[in-house]
Amino acid sequence: MEVTTEKTQKKESKIKKYLHRYFIDAMSAMAQGLFASLLIGTIISTLGTQLNIPLLDEIGGYAKAAAGPAMAVAIGYALQAPPLVLFSLVAVGGAANTLGGAGGPLAVLVLAIVAAELGRLVSRKTKIDILVTPLVTILSGCLLAYLIAPYIGAAASSFGNLIMWATELQPLLMGIIVSVTVGIALTLPISSAAICQVLGLTGLAGGAAVAGCCAQMIGFAVISFRENGWGGFFAQGIGTSMLQVPNIIKNPRIWIAPTLASAITGPLATCLFGMQMNGAPISSGMGTCGLVGQIGVYTGWLADIDAGLKTAITATDWIGLLLICFVLPALLSLAFDLVLRKINWVKPGDMKLDI
Prior knowledge:
Elements: H1 2-50, H2 54-65, H3 67-78, H4 83-99, H5 104-122, H6 129-169, H7 171-187, H8 192-199, H9 203-223, H10 225-237, H11 245-250, H12 256-272, H13 292-306, H14 315-342
Helix pairs in contact: 1-2, 1-3, 1-8, 1-13, 3-4, 3-5, 4-5, 4-6, 5-6, 6-7, 6-9, 7-8, 7-9, 7-12, 9-10, 9-12, 9-14, 12-14
C-alpha cells in the first residue's frame, strides 16, 4: 500500500513539474519575447508616427516582424534548450507565427515546446551534432507548423472572438468575468499578457482586461503602501503585483480588495465608458506595467481614427482611462482593504515585500 502511495506521489510530482514547465515557465518567457519584439515595436512605431520620425516607425516595424522568432527563442531559453536547439527555434517561431495567423502566438507556444524537446533528444548524441540538431529542430517544428499551426491559430482566434462577442452582447457580466480572471492571471505566476495575445483579446473585452490588471497592480501598490513605502508602490504599480504571491499564499484574504475592485472597474469600463483596447492584444494583459496598457489604449484610439471609426480623442476618453486605470482601483481597493483590516482579516505586515 505504501509503495503504491509513493508511486502515485511521484507521478503527481512529475505532472506538476511538467505543468509548471510548459504552462508557467514557457508561457511567461513567451510574454517576455512578445514584449521585446511586438510590444516594444508598437511603442517605437507609435512614437515615430506621433513625432513624425519615419526612421522610428521603420525600426518599430522590424521589431514587430521578429515577434515569432523572439517568442520561440524565449520559450527555448525558459526550457533550457541546448544552444543549437535554441538558435534553430528562430525558424520554427517564424513559421508557426506566420502560419498560425491571428492565433499565431498559441501556435508558437505549442510548436516551440515540441521542437525544443525533440531537438533536445538528439542534441550532442552524434558526431555531426551541428547538422543533426538544427535539422531535427527546424524540420519537426516547421513541418508541424504547416500541418497544424493554421488549426491551432484558428481555434485560439475563434475562442478570443467568442469572448469579445460575448462582451459586446453582455458587457456587464463579461466585463466582470474578463476583468477579474485576467487580473487574477496577472498576479499569479502565469502570463496574462501571453493569454491576451494568444486569444487576440481586443475591443471591449480588451478594455475590461486592462481594467482588471490595473486594479490588481494599483490596488496592491496602494493598500500595501504603509508596509512598503514608495519603493513597493512603484515596484507593484508599474512593475508587477506578482510580487505579492508569497504573501497571498500566507494570507489569501489580502487578495480580496484588489479583486473586488476589478469586479467593479471591469463593467464600468465596458458599460459606462465603453473603453476599448484596440492596440496590440498583449497590451490588454499588461495593466500599468510600464504604462503599456494605457499606451495600448492610446494606440488603439489612433488606429480607430485612421480607420475612420473614431473622429477624435475626447475628454471623456481621457477621463475614463484615468478613472479606470488609476483613480478607481486605488480608491476602491483602499475602501475594501479598510473593511478587511477592521474585521481583522488583514493585519499589519501581511503585504510586506522583501525588496
